[in-house]
Amino acid sequence: MSLPRIVIIGGGFAGVTAARGLRHAEAEVTLLDRTNHHLFQPLLYQVATAVLSPSDISSPIRWLLRKQKNTTVLMAKVDRIDIDARRVIADEGRVQVEYDFLVIAAGARHAYFGHDEWETYAPGLKSLEDARSIRDRFLNAFEEAEKAVDAETQAGWLHFVIVGGGPTGVELAGILPDIAHHSMLDDFRNFDPRSTRITLLEGGPRLLTAFDAHLAARARRDLESLGVNVRTNAIVTRVEPHAVYVGDERIPTRTVLWAAGNQASPLARWLGAPLDSQGRVEVLPDLSVPGHPEVFVAGDLAAAFEENGTPVPAVAPAANQMGKRAARNIMRVLGDLPTQKFKYRDKGNLATIGRYRAIAKIGRFELTGQIAWWFWLLIHLMYLATFRNRLSVLIEWAYSYMTYQRGSRILTEREGDGVSGSGEKADPVERRARMPSSR
Amino acid sequence: MSLPRIVIIGGGFAGVTAARGLRHAEAEVTLLDRTNHHLFQPLLYQVATAVLSPSDISSPIRWLLRKQKNTTVLMAKVDRIDIDARRVIADEGRVQVEYDFLVIAAGARHAYFGHDEWETYAPGLKSLEDARSIRDRFLNAFEEAEKAVDAETQAGWLHFVIVGGGPTGVELAGILPDIAHHSMLDDFRNFDPRSTRITLLEGGPRLLTAFDAHLAARARRDLESLGVNVRTNAIVTRVEPHAVYVGDERIPTRTVLWAAGNQASPLARWLGAPLDSQGRVEVLPDLSVPGHPEVFVAGDLAAAFEENGTPVPAVAPAANQMGKRAARNIMRVLGDLPTQKFKYRDKGNLATIGRYRAIAKIGRFELTGQIAWWFWLLIHLMYLATFRNRLSVLIEWAYSYMTYQRGSRILTEREGDGVSGSGEKADPVERRARMPSSR
After folding, report:
1. Do A98 and B433 touch (CB under 8 A)?
2. Euclidean distance between the first and final Cα of chain A, in Å?
């Protein structure tokens, strides 16, 4: 008798946790991911701002699951799911995997509200490659500012605009002044890095909607005290190479970072199940897909609800809990037991604002300021414990926070071009070298 | 009275040392490099094999020179030199810098002996981007082997061929068995990583011509004891996606790494000076260009000779010494003193072979085996001392050597494709998932 075949799509929190939950399953488990690595997404903004190296927050998926002999990891890009034939098709048909049970944990990408063409000028932050791209753009902006021939161009390079006032936007906006105002002070001759400006644009009436209003207000004050220009009710209407528009107002900038909106993986379409406005699968309470008890959805791709009707947030602990529940339900079906409902256990909510400041809400407790930041640090190091990377991250952080130096300020070269990251080329301008006047 | 303007092209060993040598100059110094980082090239092969992260062996050039207020660093790609107008033109004309003195330290790239089309299939190892590309190819080969549908394809993915028996080729060949036979043992289900084969092809009669014959023979024995198939007098005649040819013999492999041949930077052509067969500038004994006492060449771009007529080797200490000499000669001219000849001080020669083995020749002393390896480690950590990266590298090394795990096994994603590194796509083949048989 052949063993049941369980396929997992996605090597993020939900997918890896599901695989781990199946480690004792009498089954053939296959996990597919388009990359070779599991990513600790909550620290991605630190790679994007050159504090950490990509390898500090990622581990090969097959390394994480190496002891689990019932599990095969394949690096393959899933193209579609044939839900009737119970088959997953990847790598343009080169890889085809049949399943008896399927867990889809393919996550989400950022969304541009119907303006996908903005992505060229305003990259989002979901994958390691996104983080590298943002880091390159960010470092390149300072290099271009050093070479700029006129004040207006230079000011454009030294103005960073972040769109989206959720945790990612707030974390990016909070860390940039730190770098501009401290890390690079001695490095340039043609401008003062302290002249760098940071603007955070949020379309809604306030930041951090996952937090209570007074905590979000505290975060806003913290950001403003760092010099960030925070604007709420500021809906972006257009993004260009040299500017972003709020309504009809033109805001000159050469670097726009996108931290707004989520769009679920397009793989959801193959399930024939109802999707919500973000493209997420409206799963049954046991996380299975309506009409397909053999297919489960976990993580950011699932539109799940708590018993009281509030939506489960798209955060790492929720993804972990869903992955575990999906695995357990498959184990239960294999053991001829009925599946169980997913119950979300809220472990609290955390967001950092630059160096040494954070806001936290854990159950009834609230923390702000430096104590919240230390709590945030502790929690994140604990989570990273499953990685071998913890020590390395701790050293990078210690170095970065003690010395105000960035650990990973290396610009990726692109083929045949030393300058990378800027989506377009500036106009060719005849120019003499500008020499340092300070001596 | 305006200050003399000194321009340095290149931020490698020679360029950065030249800049440092000019730190007390009453002059306006500008250093141009196409990247933002100085690279510790002797450890590049460890990035290529996923032991170290790119940021472990590189530092921003402007950070290295931040205290030197007379020096401006510009990230710009030099296109040409107008030697009569004493002007350097970069970034397609957007950056133009005039000079009174010029130091060219633009280095060399690998050469394909007139077959530049081979680069697609056989990447070389000079820049950080090269190292990333080789690392991606190397890691991707194992991912493809796990997905391979037939034994022949799988064997092709598990055969690594390295072309060139110099230090880079020997170091790459020595470290690969280590990874294949130790680091990845538990990670795959569809093949045994110990079945990985490594072939080193050298066109000449022996490896490591910079060493005495008996030391090179020892290195060869060390490599062979690690399972590397070493072939000398093996001239590559053709490189294809799925094979490399030695004469008419076809050697099936999907991964060819190129460590043969040097070609000096094409910038040398703008000097109107005689070039040697590798395109290097035949400099005068004081490192200046014939007919242009205001232009100096340092590092791998200079064809310099010792007093006894032996060519100065293209190694990091020679580049450092030339950079220092070029800077001193400019200081002497500024002080109305005659320039001095460059004298190469041979600090010895080192090459590692895998874990714990090396060969070394320092003056009259020779070392082999483990003691040579520890010596190699010490020297390299001392050199890295100028970087802040030393501690981080030490930790990565300690981790890697103690646990046999790679520190940086993260595959770069390419846009819109989870699979990267392979220069071509395999034929689409209908395939069923191969499940683990071991349980």
Report:
1. yes
2. 82
A308 touches chain B (CB under 8 A): no
State the nearest Cα–Cα gap between B139 and chain A, in angstroms: 9
pLDDT > 60? residue B422: no
Known catalytic residue: B152? no
Amino acid at B108: A
Q: Which residue of B31, B75, B395 is the best one to mutate when testing the A interface, meaning the one whose CB has the most A CBs within 10 A?
A: B75
Helix axes A316-334, A13-21, angle to 10 degrees: 30
Q: How far is residue B356's CA from residue B67's CA, in Å, rounded to a whole number?
A: 38
- ipTM here: 0.84
CATH fold of A118-260+349-403: FAD/NAD(P)-binding domain (3.50.50)
CATH topology of domain B116-260: FAD/NAD(P)-binding domain (3.50.50)
Cβ–Cβ contact B364 with A under 8 A: no
What is the distance in angstroms between the Cα of A48 and the nearest Cα belonging to chain B?
A: 14
Write the pLDDT tens digit of every residue in A317-356. 999 999 999 999 999 999 999 999 999 998 888 899 987 8
- Residue B423 CA to residue B118 CA, distance in Å, equals 11
Distance from the Cα of B373 to chain A's closest Cα (Å) equals 25
CB interface of A with B, residues 104-133, below 8 Å:
127-129, 132
pLDDT tens digits, one per residue of B122-154? 999 999 999 999 999 999 999 999 999 899 999
Instruction: Looking at the structure, give the CATH architecture of the domain made up of residues A5-34+76-110+262-334.
Output: 3-Layer(bba) Sandwich (3.50)
CB within 8 Å: A30 and B432: no
Q: CB distance B95–A60 less than 8 Å? A: no
Tokens of B337: 């003193």
Q: What pTM does this model have?
A: 0.87
